[in-house]
Amino acid sequence: MTFKDLGLSPALVKAVEEKGYTKPSPIQEKAIPHILEGKDILASAQTGTGKTAGFTLPVLQHLVATRHPKYRPLRVLVLTPTRELAAQVQDNVREYSKYVDIKSAVVFGGVNAKPQIASLRSGVDVLVATPGRLLDLHDRKALSFKRIEVLILDEADRMLDMGFVRDINKIISFMPAKRQNLMFSATFSNDIKKLASGILRNPVSVETAPQNSTAKKVTHKVYKVDKNKKTEFTIKLIKDGNWNQVLVFTRTKHGANKLTEKLIKAGISAAAIHGNKSQGARTKALKNFKDNSIKILVATDIAARGLDIPLLPHVVNFELPNVPEDYVHRIGRTGRAGAAGEAISLVCSEESEYQSEIEKVLKEKLPSTVVEGFEPTDTEPPKRAASQSKGSFGKKNKGSSSQGNKPKSKPHFKGNKPSEPSGRGRANTTKKKRY
Questions:
Q1: Which of 40, 33, 46 is nearest to 3 (CA)?
Q2: SS3 for 69-115, per residue?
Q3: What is the Cα–Cα distance from 393 to 356, expressed in whole angstroms?
Q4: pLDDT grade, residue 147 (50/70/90)?
Q5: Which CATH superfamily is domain 10-207 in?
Q6: Which residues pair with 368 in a beta bridge?
Q7: Is 270 helix (H, G, I), strand (E, B) or coil?
Q8: Would you state the pLDDT for residue 30?
């Protein structure tokens, strides 16, 4: 099947082919026809498989076919959890719309709002945004949601994790009840499906890979390493392997800064990217990493979504995530679009339970190796993963089976169906972070 066979216009097909794509990916092949028909979509596909083009292309075609000749109101809104993902999606929208008369823009926090306001007031068809800055601009009356025809939630599970429920409820309350809704994500838990029921109307469910699956061409390696020797071992891996482009994940911002400093002292070019960095610093670090000005980018999980680095060969988990599903998102930065990649994890004694829970999510054992001179001799007891209840963790340590208690359900999106009052979200919703 070709993009033309999916019903896309020649102008869009030309733009896609210029990016080097000749055949649609499975998620594009399944989702695009339904979106062109105006249906709501609940789509899940492993990261790096073309989800962004899957919703961008049919939405652009809709806009071109129905454009109002006299003015240019905001008609499509794409919500993303992070600045990096917002910028990436906007890049894609701009590239795919180069041969059609569509204007797009991106807004997120951490930068001056004045240029964003000026861009919005000049007229925008498609806006890509993070929730916090979007609400700030709406409060300033810099934009209106009254003409929104399509709402897209990209990486919806991450937005839930980051506590954006109340912001999204509020944004939806300003929109017309009649609109097309598209929800895309790398993974879909039961909580996400419940959330979708509050937004989507008779959605078509599209899934191209098992939940929490990883790219087939990504190889996994675990090195059992002493906690105090992880930095030394990371430097050894980079130098011995002559690696030139490596994305390294830490659990904390402080840890990212500390590791970056030690890498630089060892003569390895590196930069850190996390929520405490200014947007300018984050953009510069990512640019330098993409053009190979620096070898190592050290990131926290905020960067696990939205980093699109073609042919990235290595991802290193300096520390395993305590949320098992985050492993999928981290290593999803490599092995993209069918390319090969390597995911390496450094696991100390206290992270053994994290590894076990990740293996349950992946439904496979990760091959583990101990390297002479770096053996784990630390005696810290294993830490409990986020997917384990205290009760089940205790039982497991006593030798009995542990499935964990069912996690508490998270608040649903209220949506703004005509029969329901629009609202501000529930009072006990997790406090949001404005990215």
A1: 33
A2: CCCCCCCEEEECCCHHHHHHHHHHHHHHCCCCCCCEEEECCCCCCHH
A3: 12
A4: very high
A5: P-loop containing nucleotide triphosphate hydrolases (3.40.50.300)
A6: 222
A7: strand
A8: 92
Torsions phi, psi of 49, nearest 5? Answer: -110, 10
pLDDT band at residue 46 using 50, 70 and 90 as cut-offs: low
Phi first, then psi, for residue 21 (nearest 5°) are: -100, 125
Pairing of strands 246-249, 314-317: parallel
Burial letters 257-287, b for 16+ CB under 10 A, else e? bebbeebeeeebebbbbbbebebeebbbbbe
Q: Is 105 left (phi over 0), alpha (psi -120 to 50) or beta?
A: beta
User: Are both 10-207 and 218-387 of the same fold?
Assistant: yes
Q: Domain limits of the chain?
A: 10-207, 218-387
> If you average pLDDT over residues 229-247, what whole number do you get?
93
Q: What is the mean pLDDT of residues 268-290?
A: 86
**Per-residue model confidence as pLDDT tens digits over 317-371:** 999 988 887 887 787 666 544 556 788 999 998 998 999 998 888 888 998 999 8
SS3 label, residue 159: helix
Report the pLDDT value the prediction gives residue 159, as an integer from 0 to 100: 84
CATH architecture of 218-387: 3-Layer(aba) Sandwich (3.40)
| 3-state secondary structure (DSSP) of residue 205 | strand
Residue 61 banded pLDDT, cuts 50, 70, 90 = very high
In angstroms, the CA 91 to CA 83 distance is 12
CA distance 271 to 324: 26
